[in-house]
Amino acid sequence: MPSLHDAARGRILFGGDYNPEQWPEEVWADDVRLMEEAGVNSVTVGVFSWAMIEPRPGAREFGWLDRLLDLLAAHGIGAVLATPTSSPPPWMGALHPETLPRTEDGALVNYGSRQHFCPSSPVYRRYAAALTEDLAARYADHPALTVWHINNEYCTHCWCDETAGHFRRWLGSRYTTLDALNDAWGTAFWSQRYDTWAEILPPRRAQYMRNPAQELDFKRFTSDALMECYTAERDIVARHTPHIPVTTNFMPLWSGQDAWAWAEQEDIVSVDVYPDPTDPHGGQYNAMLADMTRSQARGPWMVMEQAAGPVNWRDVNHPKPAGLNRLWSLQAVARGADALCYFQWRQSRQGAEKFHSGMLSHAGEEGRTFREVRRIGAELALIGAEVSGTEVTADVAVLHDWDAWWSSTQQGRPSSLVSYTELVQTWHRGLWESGISTEFARPGGDLSAYRMVLVPQLQLLGDAAVDNLVAYVRGGGTLVCGFFTGVVDTDDRIRPGGMDARLRELFGIRTVHEWWPLDAGATVGCDGFDGTLWSEELEPDGSAETVAAYRGGELDGLPAVLRKGTAWYVSTLPGPEALRGLLGRVAADAGVRPVLEGLPPGVEAVRRGALLFLLNHGRSPAAVELPGRYVDLLTGEAADGGVELERYGVAVLGDVRA
Ligand code: GAL
Q1: In whole numbers, what is the pLDDT of the chain averaged over residues?
Q2: 160 known ligand binder
Q3: Is the pLDDT of residue 658 over 50?
Q4: Ligand 1 center from residue 624 Cα (angstroms)
């Protein structure tokens, strides 16, 4: 199977989305000159060029793309060539309105923006396949072609009639009989029983709360329907170029695609990362996305998009202070990225994204943004050979699962203040702040390589996943599990006793009598810390140790944190310091060490292959003591016993062996 390695060939790929169709061709020569200056070796082309290539049904205008790819090849710049199928031309919507998506209210989503296609539409799929076929045939042997990029950020949802039929077919293969579907969806409730398949709809706007199992299946279906669009195009390009790796770019922590399942269908796993420059946890968020994507990729992965400066889709769009782009870029590399790309190369002058930054901003080649980009390009060239292809390892896994996420968003739950993604981020932060290297894993996956496994929250757990967790602990693994886990099965059906019985036995819980969610800002006293967001009325079975009990209030004296051997259950959300302390303590017991001891706050240490990356997320300089003799690959200077990092500073240290 082709991989990122084939495209990177011992380098870090560096570049970005390149949309030269927005510029007169004279500008292209300037583009490649500046790309070469900045060390750009890869650009993503064609993402939004459907209307340029096929200006009317069946037409093919490849001349400009021929000239562009020839130009790139002549300058040794590789092309990540996109199938332009995420933004159909206006003629398609005008001629075939049935290709346009409909909202859950039945409203038509018009063309005039992007991503306006119904994933179930056979007409859309036919046009997309025909164009992909011709694109792949034409450029299969082009020397610039290094990676196929299918579509862009698959994120469309549709509730139209075509989708309804497709959904029914999907349900038919999942359940075979209507009885099985009625049982799985619990349609005895509120007179929802279906008598024929034709009655079943996508969960459209309804009078009151909708059926949560139907919604869960619709989310599964939508991820699968989009994946069919992806695999159809992937199979076409792979037939023409079996040696060229294929990817599609994920949105970060995006609920619409089960990224574990999608990643299995990709040669390269790529993601678009846009931490907010003003978010005090931006560095950890970036680390988390890197850990997640690396885990999905099972190795080196690709930053397909990031921003060199401000984005244009937040309420207030802040630029990146000097040094932050470099810091987050090298952080991604430290955490396994072998490709570091931006949206986009040259900042647009027109259109909805003209206020979104580019590598080459409106300030031009003398602008601060471009100077920083040039520096990053030069540094990647320095370290590329040593870094590319090397691994990042971790003793700890955080479990993450789309089914559980989807089930956690349903209406009518105990607290709408509980956010699955925030919990994942909060628990990951507990480890990140303790300097512990982390991966992500699926609840049903092989956990044997990890000394410690964390479950921030998995409301839905299937039987196989439950058995997997139990077997992991029985095999000596350390499991720390957050509240409201194992509550429903894969049909979203409640498991009696407030939690799966096998898990209750694992943690020493006889019954979960009630969930006691907390109001915003409220806390519940516990031994040694305050809990937030949630608490639980647990009746222990006597086999577990109460590590901390609730103090005061209704739950006074009942266990808040339980431990039975190496299985821990945390029934509230401890504040950040307490969570960090708890995870740090359990990690130490499990033999998990931080990457480097005694780091100043805000400094992150990551080992990748033989290199040690030090990254200062603080706004002031930091001094780091080192346990040996190193050389900083970025400066060539010795770092014996310690190194000084400027604000947002980075050192990439190689061991000096005697
Ligand atoms: C991504 C998208 C790009 C661009 C970017 C702006 O979601 O793939 O095309 O719109 O956001 O941040």
Answers
A1: 97
A2: yes
A3: no
A4: 37
Position 21 pLDDT exceeds 60: yes
Model pLDDT for residues 350-386, shown as the tens digit of each residue: 999 999 999 999 999 999 999 999 999 999 999 999 9
Contact 233, 151 (CB under 8 A): yes
Report how far residue 30's alpha carbon sits from residue 45's, in angstroms, rounded to the nearest whole number: 17
Half-sphere exposure of 649 (CA within 13 A, CB side): 15
Ligand 1: which residue has its CA nearest to atom 11? 343
Beta bridge partners of 45: 18, 81
Q: Is 28 annotated among the ligand-binding residues?
A: no
Phi/psi of residue 560, nearest 5 degrees: -100, -40
Give the global pTM: 0.98
Q: Does the C-beta of 311 come closer than 6 Å to ligand 1? A: yes
* Most informative mutation of 19, 343, 345, 348 for ligand 1 (most atoms within 8 A of CB): 343
Residue length of the chain: 658
**Does 2.60.40.1180 match the CATH number of domain 603-657?**
yes
Q: Is 158 annotated as a binding residue?
A: yes
Q: Which residues have a catalytic role annotated?
A: 153, 305
Alpha helix locations (H) across 275-355?
Answer: 282-297, 324-334
Q: How many CB atoms lie within 10 A of CB 18?
A: 31
The CATH superfamily label for domain 396-589 reads Class I glutamine amidotransferase (GATase) domain (3.40.50.880)
Report the first-to-last Cα separation within the chain, whole angstroms: 40
Instruction: Give me the architecture of the 4-158+244-387 domain, per CATH.
Output: Alpha-Beta Barrel (3.20)
Place of tokens 């946890």: 281
pLDDT of amino acid 524: 98
Report d(CA 299, CA 517) in Å as an integer.
39
SS (HEC) of 93-156: HHHCHHHCCECCCCCECCCCCCCCCCCCCHHHHHHHHHHHHHHHHHHCCCCCEEEEEECCCCCC
Q: What is the largest CA-CA distance in the chain?
A: 78
Secondary structure (3-state) at 510: strand
Query: What are the residues facing 147 on neighbouring strands?
Result: 80
Looking at residue 657, its pLDDT comes to 62
